[in-house]
Amino acid sequence: MFDYKLLSALAGVIEHGGFERAAVALGLSQSAVSQRIKLLEARIGQPVLVRAAPPAPTEVGRRLLNHVQQVRLLERDVQGQVPTLGDDKQPERLRVALNADSLATWWAGAVGGFCSEHQLLLDLLVEDQDVGLKRMRAGEVAACVCATERPVAGARSEPLGAMRYRPLATKPFLERWMPGGFSPQALAKAPALVFGPDDFLQHRYMAALGVSQVQVFHLCPSSEGFMRMAEAGAGWGLIPEMQAARLIAEGVLVELLPGYHSDVPLYWHHWRNGGQLLDALTRHLLREAAHALIAPVGVRSGPHNEQQRGV
């Protein structure tokens, strides 16, 4: 049987970024919080925290945090049905994994109003689509946005729509690297922009054009920085159409091969038994995503990629 005072101490340390702040939030002394963490670790038989600045949960610590979160959501439902159990109106906290391009474009506009109305705080973990599902499978997050349709056990998958990526670069970049016009051979030699080791969007795009692999590339682990690098003429890359719309309209960025784009489907994965708040967020998100994203395309124009950028 779990001792939820100990689990609350763990959640407090992680959510507030340290023992001292957790103590203030919980109305305890710092020593008391530390003792509760030590007692929890003694009962489990392994560490639940990495003592760093700020502290980070271990693998088992993340599982416990996820359990605490799910219990809080269910308790919120019960309190709504039986008000005399408590009148705690503190904001709820939800852990969600999503890719950086969604965070940089449509996500904030889709959830901002909901968070304010329902007193919801989000712990956003920026992950590639594979890691996002692994986090759900390990019980570390309540939901995730990814490009994989199949849900993990105990979760549901809902289609959100698709993000359109266009291969973009500056005119000077194209004049330098493709003076005779676009060709797969020229593309193979031109520096590409890659988000990180798990970003295969450019690789798959090039493979569809007959280029075996990306050999010359910059690594840029920032969605905003990725576009700025393209704007500066450092390389070409597949950038979300909604993110680059202004620069495309102004002629700052142009398409390498007009009409050839990649539409990446997105899915919302969430617990089946996550409580009314998570259900309400899901309904809200599906409505908002229908306006922010494009409908999945049946007939694809140019190389199409079912693999989401690895962030």
Task: Please write out the topology.
Blueprint: H1 4-16, H2 19-26, H3 30-44, E1 49-50, E2 56-57, H4 59-81, E3 92-98, H5 100-104, H6 107-117, E4 120-126, H7 129-137, E5 143-146, E6 155-169, H8 171-177, H9 184-189, E7 192-194, H10 201-208, E8 217-219, H11 223-231, E9 237-240, H12 241-249, E10 254-255, E11 262-271, H13 275-292
Parallel strand pairs: 3-4, 3-5, 7-8
Antiparallel strand pairs: 1-2, 5-11, 6-9, 6-10, 6-11
Helix pairs in contact: 1-2, 1-3, 1-4, 2-3, 4-13, 6-13
Describe the structure in your own words.
The chain has 311 residues and is of the alpha/beta class. The protein has a domain at 163-263: D-Maltodextrin-Binding Protein, domain 2 (3-Layer(aba) Sandwich), CATH 3.40.190.10. It has 13 helices and eleven strands. α2 (19-26) crosses α3 and α6 runs antiparallel to α13. Mean pLDDT is 86; it is low at 298-307.
Looking at the overall shape, the CATH architecture of the domain at 163-263 is: 3-Layer(aba) Sandwich
The name of the CATH topology of the domain at 163-263 is D-Maltodextrin-Binding Protein, domain 2
Instruction: Tell me about the largest β-sheet.
Output: 7 strands, mixed
Residue-averaged pLDDT, rounded?
A: 86
Which bin fits the share of residues in helices?
Answer: 40-55%
Unreliable segments (pLDDT under 50, ≥5 consecutive)? 298-307
The CATH first-level class of the domain at 163-263 comes to Alpha Beta
How many E-type strands?
11
The total count of helices amounts to 13
Gyration radius, rounded: 23 Å
Distance between the termini: 38 Å
Shape: elongated
Multimer state: single chain
N-to-C series of helices and strands: HHHEEHEHHEHEEHHEHEHEHEEH
CATH superfamily of the domain at 163-263: Periplasmic binding protein-like II
| Class derived from helix and strand content | alpha/beta
Give the amount of beta strand, in percent: 15-25%
